[in-house]
Specification:
By secondary structure, this protein is mainly beta. The chain is built from 5 helices and 20 strands. It binds zinc ion (ZN). Zinc ion binds next to strand 17.
Length: 315
Amino acid sequence: MACPEFAFHVPSLQELARVLQKGLEENFADVQVSVVDCPDLTQEPFAFPAKGICGKTRIAEVGGVPYLLPLVNRSRVYDLNRIAKDIKLPGAFILGAGAGPFHTLGFNSEFMPIVQTEGGHRPPVNGSYFAHINPADGGCLLEKYNEKHRDFGCALLANLFASEGQPGKVIEVRAKRRTGKLNFVSCMRQTLEKHYGDKPVGLGGTFLVQKGRVKTHIMPAEFSSCPLKSDEEVNTWLRFYEMAAPLVCLPVFVSRDPGFDLRLEHTHFFSHHGEGGHYHHDTTPDAVEYLGYFSPAELLYRVDQPEETHSFGRD
Ligand SMILES: [Zn+2]
C-alpha cells in the first residue's frame, strides 16, 4: 500500500527541552525537562521488547475514527508487520494507541500496541495489551495479547510511533502538581504548536503516571448498532472510568496537522494491576506526577486515510 509521507520539522533535543520546560511550567508547579540517555525500556515497569525509542523515528496514523463512527467498517483491519513495511521500516519497534483486532478477538477493545515487528535484528515480539469491559461487572479487563494470540493485528484506527528501538538520547520530562487546565499531553502538544507554528513537530515515546488517578474510557465490546453522530452520542456509548497510578502510557502527538486529517494526540496505557484504557486527563491535580521519555519523529506516514471524514469522537 502506498502511503503519503511528510517530513516533520525536527528541532534539536536541547531546543525541544527548553521549549517544553517553559510550556509545561504554565500548567504544572514542578517541571524538569532534560536530555538524557533513554532508560532501558526492557526493564520494569515498561518491559518492552526493545531498549529504546531512537533511530529512524516516524509517526504513522492508520485508518481513523470515520472507520469506527457513525457505524463500524469491518473491512478496515491491519497487520503491524505489514504497516512496518508500508512505512519503510521493516523490523520497526512500534508503540501507540488504537483499536484492538476485533477480527481475531471477536469483540471490540482498546489496544496498546507494543510490537517488535518482523524483519529486524531482533525476533518479532507482540508485547501489546488490550482492555475490554468485563461483561460480568462492567469493570476493566486488561490482557496481554500474546497470551492467547499469535498474530500482529490491529483494526480501524491507530496512532503509532515507530523507531529502530535503539538506545540513545531522549527528552526526559518530569512534571508534578497540575496547576493549569490542560492534560500532560495536550500541554506539550499545544506548547509545540505555539512555538513552531506551521512547522509540524511530532513526538512519541512513553510516560508513567507515577502518582494520582486518571479519567479513562474503554469502548464497549459490541460496536454500536445505531449510528453515533456526535460527541454526545459517542460519550453515551463509551464507558468511563477512573484508574490509579502507576500507569504506563503510550503517547503519540503532532503539533499541527499538515493536511492528512490527523488525530493530533492519542494516548493509551496499561498497568501491572489490571487497569488500562484511553487516557483523557488526570483527576488529581494536587497529587499527580508524570515521568516521560520522548523522541521527535523524522517522518509522518498516513496509512489508509478515510476518504469521508468528520470531526467528532476525537477526544
Ligand atoms: Zn483511544
